[in-house]
User: Fold this.
Amino acid sequence: MNIYPKHTGPIGQDAIRTSPLADSAPSDATRAVTPVPSSTDRSDKVSISDAGRALAARDGGPVSAGLDPARAERIRERVLNGAYDTLEVVDAVARRLLASGDL
Assistant:
């Protein structure tokens, strides 16, 4: 595919176009808008529905899935210490995610 530019030289004053609104003087209809501080909290939040809580209770929660609190704490410590911050681990996780079909 070839691209042939039409205008390759410098831009002169005759080539500059302005908006009709830019040339007009400010009127009473326009006024400065002052920013209003947002009162909303911008932090992330997780909300678990009642149905989700019921499913977790029915299945027995994380303990029945084979993740006892002591093992969860060991995994948490490894994550915090950077044990999983290697290219090999990231590659293995990505491959398992792709193979699982969850993406």
Observations:
- The two ends are 35 Å apart (CA to CA).
